[in-house]
Amino acid sequence: MTATPAAATDSRLGILLMLGGMTFFTLNDALGKWLVTEYPVAMLLAIRSLFGTAVLLPMILREGVRTVFAVKRLPMHLVRVLLVTLDIACFYWAVAYLPLADVMTIYMSAPLIVTALSVLFLGETVGWRRWVAVVVGFAGVVIVLNPTGQFDLLPSLVALLGATIFASGLIFTRLLREAGTLPLVTYQTLGGLVLGGAALPFSWTTPGWLDFFLLGLLGITALGGHAMINRSLQLSPAAVVVPFQYVSILWAVLLDLAVWGTQPSLRMALGGALIIGSGLFIFHREQSLKRGAAAGAASDHV
Q1: What count of Cα atoms within 13 Å lies in the side-chain half-sphere of residue 153?
Q2: Separation CA 171–CA 116 (nearest Å)
């Protein structure tokens, strides 16, 4: 069966939105790398979240404050907020010492970590093919970390810790998906404001107006990225648009080269290829299993 013109248009728009969303996220990450050399991580979290809250406020009022905040399983939401905030803090801290593309490549191991964690926390069954992909992907992580060469130990381990925390946050997001996008984004934004704000008295550095604007732009670009990616997944099948998330590595390499004069290393390219290839294999394998399960369920009702 051929796709209808409307479906084809939606898929093209979905791809463009995914590319736009990942571009916004890469700009957010580059801004963070630029600003964290002058301002503490707590300030980045707090001011980013303050601007993000300002953007969210009209949507919260339109939806209704009670509707947005009256969520089920509140303790799980609070754990997710803590994980998301720690993940952002780890990322900003790591990019202060490592090239942006290296940190983003390490973070691309998150789908591999989610696959492993899903066995423990979601009770999912992972076949041998996906386990092999996980092992190959982590071999790519080891290559990127480069433990036998010039290994910047602490920032590299913080980046890997951040990727693990990010993956754990994705598990909680999957468990809480019935809450809806707006409550999830609102809770994580306010969490960054509260946790970052709590550390401000001990780390405040007064920014100029331009830097204050750039700090606020962190929150706006992050929310813009979330909105584009969510809309992309609404318009197009995940199998069509999700592979385009890896365009962020290309943008990171270009920004490293243009802004910081850092050329991509061979180890980053090789390790990144293994990580991305493994992640894509796991994703497409999961999609194939879902289609097979759906076809089996449909045949049961024939």
Answers
A1: 1
A2: 11
List pLDDT tens digits, range 9-21: 677 888 899 899 9
Do the Cβ atoms of 229 and 17 come closer than 8 Å?
yes
Q: 5-35 vs 247-255: helix axis angle to the nearest 10?
A: 40
**Cα 17 to Cα 229: distance, rounded to the nearest angstrom:** 6
pTM tops 0.70, yes or no: yes
Instruction: Please name the residues in contact with 258: beta carbons below 8 A apart, sequence gap of 6 or more.
Output: none
Q: What is the DSSP string of 140-203?
A: HHHHHH-TTSS--HHHHHHHHHHHHHHHHHHHHHHHTGGG-HHHHHHHHHHHHHHHHHHHHHHH
Helix (H), strand (E) at residue 297: helix 266-300
- What's the CA gap between 103 and 186, in Å, rounded? 26
Indicate the range of 9-23, 54-68, 87-101 predicted with least confidence. 9-23
Across the chain, how many H-helices and E-strands are there? Answer: 13, 0
Find the angle CA(250)-CA(251)-CA(252) to the nearest 5 degrees.
90
Identify the pLDDT of residue 1.
45
pLDDT in tens, 16-60: 998 999 999 999 999 999 999 899 999 999 999 999 999 999 999
Long-range contacts from 233-240, C-beta under 8 angstroms, 24+ separation: 233/14, 234/14, 235/10, 235/11, 235/13, 235/14, 235/17, 236/10, 236/11, 236/13, 236/14, 236/15, 236/18, 237/11, 238/283, 238/287, 239/283, 239/284, 239/287, 240/11, 240/14, 240/15
Question: How far apart, in Å, are the Cα atoms of 50 and each of 213, 216, 232?
Answer: 12, 7, 26
| CA 36/CA 215 separation, integer angstroms | 10
Q: Which residue has the tokens 């107006």?
A: 209
Percent of the chain with pLDDT over 90: 35
pLDDT reading at 161 higher than 90: yes
